[in-house]
Structure formats: C-alpha cells, structure tokens
Amino acid sequence: MSAEKINPYKDSELGKKEQVAQMFDNISENYDGLNRVISLGIDVKWRKKVVKIVGKNNPKQILDIATGTGDLALMMASLKPEKIVGLDISAGMLEVGKQKIAKANLSDKIEMIVGDSEEMPFKDNTFDAITVSFGVRNFAHLDKGLTEIARVLKPTGVLVILETSNPTKFPFKQGYKFYTNFILPVIGKLFSKDKVAYSYLSESANSFPFGDAFNNILKKNGFTHTKDTPVTFGVATIYTAYK
C-alpha cells in the first residue's frame, strides 16, 4: 500500500490532510516526551546533522515544513539566519512550539504559521534553505508537496529532508520491523490519548519510499544533485537536494 493511501483513522470521512492535522492536535501535548522515548533520543543527533548541512549554505531565510513543536527550527537558530519560518498543519503542535520558542527568547527570530505544505503562502524563490524532518510521509500528495517546495526555494537554495527509512541489512532489518510493528504501537497506546496515532506513524514509516526510490521522486519534482545519507543503520535517512 502506498504511503499516500495510509491514513491515521480508518473509518474517518476526512481526507488524509485533515486526519493528520487532527491526529497531531490530539497527541501534541505529550509528543515531545514520547518522541524521545521512541527514538531512544537518537533523533536529536539526526537533527544536529541536518543543521550542519543547512549551515554550509549560510542561509538568511529558512523554512521548516511540518515543524511540529519546533525542535529543528529551534536548533537552526544557532546558524544566525535573519528569519526562520515554521509551517505546520497542526495548530496544537504549533502552540507547544510557540511556548518553547518564547522560553528560548526567539519569538522575534522564529515565526510559526499554520499552513498546508501543498499550498504555501509564500512567493516564488523565497528561501535559502528548506527543511522537513519526519514530515514528508504525512503529505497527502507527495508530488504536489515537493513541487511546491521547489517553487518557494531559491535557485541557489538547498532542501534537506530527514525521514524514516527501513534498514536493509540483517539483523537490523528484522529488528526494526519487530520494533515498529509491535513495540512502537504498544508504547504509543500506553502513553498517548490517541490509540491509533502511533500505529499510523509506524505503518506510514514502513511503507514510505526511501533511498534511491525517494531520490527519483525528488528528481521527478524539480530537484537535482540528490543525495541520501542513511543514519543509525538506516533507521532514518537524510536527503539533500538542489533545485
């Protein structure tokens, strides 16, 4: 089943976009804590790698799509850009993010906006760098989301995506499958009000194209010089691409 067809709530009348917004609103309050537990804290390391790649471009204007509670946006403030915009479809997640940003005294530097990655309220060629961490697999229409990213990225800009992938080597492949199919949903059910959210997150992770397959999707949608770097045995992958 393709990732675009996988929705959080099987019996909902809503489209994927609305369901994803609803799901993240539901889990926003305990998302950060749960995320650290689920990834064993390794996601922080991955984000640091993303920040390093973005920093090579000395970006002035940065857009963080599917910013959630703003973890990556906050980390990128260390690059001293003029402006960081965090965009997300879930107002609940952004509220948590705004509190974190205010606490870090960065409200004048980081702006959080409720918005749809497939129809962004920005002019063409606006951003020097665009990041998406664990967000592209939630796009309702992947191609549309990527062409929209290409539109608002400057010709000299860089796109950096951090997304889950599936380890291909024994025994990590088998271990990861077991972890995402059995352990993850159980942790999610124990700690989250939303019983299906973490089943959806692991199911969508397992079916999302990665490596060369995702590079080809990027190329098809207006990107070039695509590169994928697997991290932690291939549990996640960092993609870089240019317009």
From TrEMBL:
UniProt keywords (A-Z) are: Menaquinone biosynthesis, Methyltransferase, S-adenosyl-L-methionine, Transferase
InterPro entries registered for this protein in UniProt: SAM-dependent_MTases_sf, UbiE/COQ5_MeTrFase, UbiE/COQ5_MeTrFase_CS
The record, for Gene3D superfamilies, names: Vaccinia Virus protein VP39
List the catalytic activities from the record.
a 2-demethylmenaquinol + S-adenosyl-L-methionine = a menaquinol + S-adenosyl-L-homocysteine + H(+)
Q: What positions does the entry give for S-adenosyl-L-methionine binding?
A: 69, 88, 116-117, 133
The molecular function terms in GO held by this entry are: demethylmenaquinone methyltransferase activity
Q: In which pathway does it act?
A: Quinol/quinone metabolism; menaquinone biosynthesis; menaquinol from 1,4-dihydroxy-2-naphthoate: step 2/2
Which top EC class is named for this enzyme in its record?
transferase
**What is any one GO biological process for this UniProt entry?**
menaquinone biosynthetic process
Q: What is its EC number?
A: 2.1.1.163
Q: Does the keyword S-adenosyl-L-methionine apply?
A: yes
Briefly state the protein's biological role: Methyltransferase required for the conversion of demethylmenaquinol (DMKH2) to menaquinol (MKH2).
Q: What family does the entry list? A: Belongs to the class I-like SAM-binding methyltransferase superfamily. MenG/UbiE family.
Protein's name in the database: Demethylmenaquinone methyltransferase
Species name: Polaribacter aquimarinus
Source species taxonomy: Bacteria, Pseudomonadati, Bacteroidota, Flavobacteriia, Flavobacteriales
Q: Which gene encodes it?
A: menG
